[in-house]
Structure to design on (310 residues):
């Protein structure tokens, strides 16, 4: 919340005077006040839950996962009413848990911190989370994994409701540079082929590399590159000897293999982080490509590491 509000504060006034000139905001909550954050900071509400239409946008903070069971029912009712009116709802960090508890993330995509993914999936199996994007917009709901990437959402909203100049001012004052994709392939066996490939192929591959966790249709990819699916297919077959969809799946599986080797995430988390709709689909694709399941591959890597004394 601090990162989100600080971006608003800087965009709302000239220089760093902190007046709510171009934007205004309230802190609202249900239950007793002031509200105490886990870090000890206390917040006294300046608004109430009477009318969700009093706001152009509502940002939700969830707090610690262990405390989510104590959220007042009035909070969920308020969020459902706001959603029914199409008001933009922003889930900051575990705010996505609150939105999901309110029943608002059913079959929707959402951005989560990797550390909360397993717990989120166990509670809300019908949602579609990702952990490698700064934020995800699905209809009127925007979610982010929290921390400083909340600045990204604030800047998006500032530009949407005001102008890009104020959004840039907030970024400059905060010394913030938006992150690139968090999944970066270490090994790229196709790099040599790209050296002599058409510019269209190179640009398409760059897009695929930054969207390992969220592949789109080849039609949409072609459209984003100002070309046609037919022309893109022709370029890939000439330069890489395979169709764009097959190549995109291949680099996603390469990324999954590297993540499995790192031993920092479980198979379900890796499936979602590499853009697969479910674990079964991921395991099937991985075995078809590498002739072993993800878990078998991880066991082999662990055995090799133990044998080499790593």
């Amino acid at each position: 919340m601090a990162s989100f509000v600080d971006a608003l504060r800087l965009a709302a006034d000239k220089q760093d005077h902190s007046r709510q000139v171009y934007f205004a905001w309230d802190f609202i909550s249900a239950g007793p006040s002031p509200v105490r954050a886990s870090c000890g900071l206390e917040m006294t509400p300046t608004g109430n839950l009477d009318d969700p239409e009093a706001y152009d946008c509502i940002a939700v903070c969830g707090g610690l996962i262990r405390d989510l069971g104590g959220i007042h029912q009035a909070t969920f009712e308020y969020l459902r009413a706001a959603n029914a009116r199409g008001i933009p709802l922003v889930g900051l960090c575990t705010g996505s848990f609150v939105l999901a508890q309110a029943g608002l993330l059913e079959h929707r995509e959402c951005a989560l911190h990797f550390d909360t993914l397993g717990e989120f999936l166990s509670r809300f199996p019908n949602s579609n989370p990702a952990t490698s994007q700064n934020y995800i917009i699905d209809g009127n709901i925007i979610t982010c994994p929290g921390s400083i990437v909340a600045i990204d959402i604030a800047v998006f909203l500032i530009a949407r409701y005001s102008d890009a100049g104020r959004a840039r001012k907030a970024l400059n004052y905060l010394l913030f540079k938006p992150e690139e994709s968090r999944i970066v392939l270490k090994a790229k066996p196709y790099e040599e082929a790209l050296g002599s490939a058409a510019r269209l192929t190179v640009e398409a591959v760059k897009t695929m590399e930054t969207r390992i966790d969220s592949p789109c249709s080849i039609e949409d990819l072609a459209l984003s590159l100002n070309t046609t699916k037919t022309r893109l297919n022709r370029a890939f077959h000439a330069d890489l000897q395979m169709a764009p969809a097959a190549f995109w799946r291949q680099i996603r599986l390469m990324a999954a293999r590297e993540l499995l080797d790192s031993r920092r995430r479980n198979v379900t988390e890796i499936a979602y982080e590499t853009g697969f709709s479910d674990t079964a689909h991921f395991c099937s694709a991985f075995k078809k490509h590498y002739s072993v399941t993800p878990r078998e591959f991880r066991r082999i890597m662990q055995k090799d590491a133990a044998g080499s004394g790593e």
Summary: The longest helix spans residues 244-262.
